[in-house]
Fold this sequence. Notes:
Blueprint: E1 7-13, H1 17-28, E2 33-36, E3 52-53, H2 65-81, E4 86-94, H3 102-114, E5 125-128, E6 141-150, H4 152-165, E7 169-171, E8 174-182, E9 185-192, E10 198-208, H5 214-222, E11 230-241, E12 249-253, E13 259-265, E14 269-273, E15 277-278, H6 290-303, E16 315-324, E17 338-343, E18 351-356, H7 362-373, H8 398-408, H9 414-424, H10 427-432, E19 444-446, E20 449-450, H11 451-460, H12 466-473, H13 482-499
Amino acid sequence: MTANQSDYDLVVIGGGINGAGIAADAAGRGLKVLLCEMNDLASSTSSKSSKLIHGGLRYLEYYEFRLVREALAEREVLLKKAPHIIWPLRFQLPHRPHLRPAWMIRAGLFLYDHLAKRVSLSPSRSIRFAPEGPLASHLTHGFEYSDGWVDDARLVVLNAMLARNHGATIMTRTRCTSARRGNGHWQIELENQTTQQLCSVSCKALVNAAGPWVTQLFDSALHTPSPKKIRLVKGSHIIVPKIHEGPHAYILQNEDGRVVFVLPYEEQYSLIGTTDIEHFGEPDQACISDTEIDYLISVVNEHFQHQLHREDIVSTFSGVRPLLDDEADNPQAVSRDYTFEMDSSDTSAPLLSVFGGKITTYRKLSEAAVNRICEHFPAAGPCLTAQENLPGGDIASLSTLLNQLQTAFPWLPETLAKRYARTYGTLSLQMLEGIQGIDEMGQHFGAGLYTAEVEYLKTQEWAKSTDDILWRRTKLGLQMSDEGIQMLNAHLTNEELSAC
């Protein structure tokens, strides 16, 4: 896009889950939308969550009943919208009577089952653990309940794709350097972070969905004080070779009142997290500390027969949650709820800023945000996102799609077909169109990654770097060798040079 080329109804700053969700909703209502993100989509908080679509069982202890009810209702909506990247997950909670009495847990699970209509998920129940199971011998009984798992980074990308399908413009690696009101519009300066090329656009309404940078954007681009404060709370995770069999997850109670999840992850691994620690400094500099590693290992070792050690860790990640500052003393008690700040001092050029939120309620947040924005666009259509599948999600079931892939592409190895089905859904058919055999997939970089997939990710999903491909669009970074990473980087570099 060249300078001064386009006038938009809405510009959204921030390519995390809230920004992408707002862009998809607004574009679906007929608004002309631009989304800009200074890095890659989901490059910060939205790719570093615990990967859960959940009501937040522990939020009941903080009396956040409205938030839990809304999140529980959204589970059902999201399971239908994206069944290729979101699916049900059963959680087992070992009972430790000195931490929470059984009656309290039963009451909490009763509320969890009934605060919102539950259609596709099984109810909670009491369970007993077999002596030969993975848990420590003193853990003999507990509880089981339902929530959901999500590929968080892909959820962001698919919302951006949905926005594009409705006509939105998506600009990654593009920073907003200035936004000023003038003549009833916002005049916005954008800088391409790769080429440093500048461009100017104008819009009728502006959304600040910059996540951990939401208050910084007021200082750096809007040149006005932020109306609210946020607290940056770091949540860290470790990934280890899987420590239990079966498709279920565990939720472990700790002596400090917190809980730690042990989730089945990418078939071969267990994902363990999370912590809640106040973070100071730049959000993209967050990393796990030795104290956090010791904490997570200690909690797991209290509950499992198999004992973890530092050398078992395959990978780690830390995300910074931008939570609305409610002046809670304890970081884990800070509300996960969200709020908007609407600045309509110039009624013809409103600014809506998003503070807080959680991934499970992104669609509801987006709907509420666009409802506010559409007060200034009376011709906008209704919200479509509750009924609309995300790209690739138009499937009856993963098994049905897998059969379709194996019938259409009988040469495709089963492991690859399974990964494509749960990563791309029906978009797999688009990616593989015209390919007659594995030898036509192009260079193999390792871990089942071929040129055909790389090119699809570049042309359709805004992927540019090895991290974009190996950690956000896929999770192949867990298995890729150093040689494979070098080969992929060389391939991307050569193609970039060829395009110059």
